[in-house]
Specification:
The complex is a heterodimer of chains A (202) and B (187). Chain A has 202 residues and is of the alpha/beta class. Helices cover 40% and strands 17% of the residues of chain A. Chain A is built from 8 helices and 8 strands; from the N terminus they run αβαβαβααβββαβαβα. A 6-stranded parallel beta sheet of chain A has the order 2-1-3-4-8-7, with helices on both faces. Chain A starts with a helix and ends in a 13-residue tail after the last helix. Chain B is built from 9 helices and 6 strands; from the N terminus they run H-H-E-H-E-H-E-H-H-E-H-E-H-E-H. The chains are: A alpha/beta (202), B alpha/beta (187).
């Protein structure tokens, strides 16, 4: 699959889910495709922790669906994250793991074990029941509803080609990302996230 | 396989046999509950096996054993953005692995998290393999300007709650350090 085409299509299916993107390409392309500054936490400084971050978020907002994006560079760094996700088994969390067998944000330097890593088998080996592996747009489009829109935690492996991409980070500093996203979650859930509420409670 | 609650009861019994105080663990857990903490992410250390078990068995909390300490940082940081109070519980060696996660996630985005950590490598720690913590822990904490509160006696356990709330106020991580003698109920 083409990386940008894949993310662009997923973005076209995006409704009201909260999204957590990871370091580098997924953040850059998601921002380029959507321009969103409220419903996405661009966790560019994350290196293998975006899905854990998304799990913590999903735990606290059980009525909101959360999409987490990570890459296989992060995955080989912290594959054990799946043991935590399996254990939490959050019905509102979907983990998209984008695999291009290279460190895409650092000039496509090859990954260890690049051709042999079987991410689907690893996820199943950790006991995850709803594991999907898509290597083409047809496969992704054909089973997207089942993999992503139905309730239940799922791990979705997207096999894409390395991208010769030089994108730009979303034009916000970390605290702005935090406040925009956090205020959006406050409005959605009525919960206080920050110590100083923005709006007066009735 | 034994379920998590049964395992934690067994683990707590073992910790009691080795002298760790059930009452101190209960006070720590009560303090955390009192400030609104509901999610606990932990990696074990013998000294806090009793405390981990108390969290596991207390229905006010969801306890998530994690695969590595960095995952606890990710989990607690995300929990903050959902309005959920969280604590990461770990040994000193675990905290020593967190410089990347804390400086990248929590300092870049100014996301508060709270970490309870053992004071491994102290004079009363008999484990040679924790000498490194005694030598370098304080310097590492200072090097990243991580606000640190040592809970020096049972009377100071309420400071755990204060340190948690302080993290929210300053939008940074804070840590509270648990000495061995405290966890044994000797100070």
């Amino acid at each position: 699959m083409n990386y940008q085409e894949c993310l662009s299509w997923i973005a076209s299916r995006w409704n009201d889910e909260l999204v957590v993107t990871s370091a580098g390409t997924s953040s850059e392309i998601w921002f380029e495709e959507t321009g969103d500054t409220e419903r996405v936490f661009y966790l560019e400084a994350s290196m293998s922790l975006s899905s854990c971050f998304a799990a913590g978020l999903a735990f606290g907002v059980p009525d909101q669906n959360v999409w987490a994006f990570s890459g296989d560079g992060a995955f080989v760094m912290n594959a054990g994250m799946l043991t935590v996700e399996r254990q939490m088994n959050l019905p509102n969390l979907k983990h998209f793991m984008i695999s291009n067998r290279v460190y895409g944000s650092t000039s496509n330097v090859p990954l260890p074990g690049r051709s042999d890593n079987n991410y689907e088998a690893i996820a199943r080996g950790f006991g995850i029941e709803r594991v999907y592996s898509f290597g083409s747009m047809n496969e992704l489009q054909g089973r997207f509803e089942e993999a992503v829109m139905e309730p239940g935690y799922s791990f979705i492996h997207l096999e894409v080609e390395p991208l010769d991409y030089r994108g730009h980070s979303p034009p916000m500093d970390g605290p702005e990302v935090k406040f925009r996203f956090g205020r959006h979650v406050e409005k959605l859930t009525g919960k206080n996230i920050f110590t100083a509420p923005l709006t007066k409670k009735n | 396989m034994e379920d998590l609650i049964d395992s934690s009861i067994r683990s707590a019994a073992r910790a009691t046999e080795t002298g760790y105080s059930l009452e101190i663990s209960e006070e720590i857990v009560e303090t955390c509950a009192g400030v609104g903490i509901r999610l606990v992410a932990s990696l074990p250390d013998d000294w806090i096996a009793q405390t981990i078990a108390r969290f596991e068995q207390d229905k006010r909390f969801t306890h998530v054993p994690v695969n590595r300490e960095e995952s606890a940082v990710g989990l607690c940081s995300g929990a903050f953005l959902s309005g959920t109070g969280a604590v990461a519980l770990m040994g000193a060696s675990g905290l020593m692995t967190l410089v990347y996660a804390i400086t990248k996630i929590n300092y870049t985005y100014e996301i508060p998290i709270f970490i309870l950590v053992t004071q491994r490598g102290s004079l009363d720690d008999g484990a040679k393999f924790h000498v490194s913590n005694g030598l370098y822990f304080d310097d590492v904490v200072r090097s990243i300007n991580l606000p640190c509160t040592v809970i020096a006696s049972r009377q100071e356990i309420p400071k755990i709650g204060e340190a948690y709330l302080h993290s929210r106020k300053i939008s940074r991580p804070t840590i509270a350090v648990l000495p061995k003698k405290l966890l044994l109920g000797k100070i």
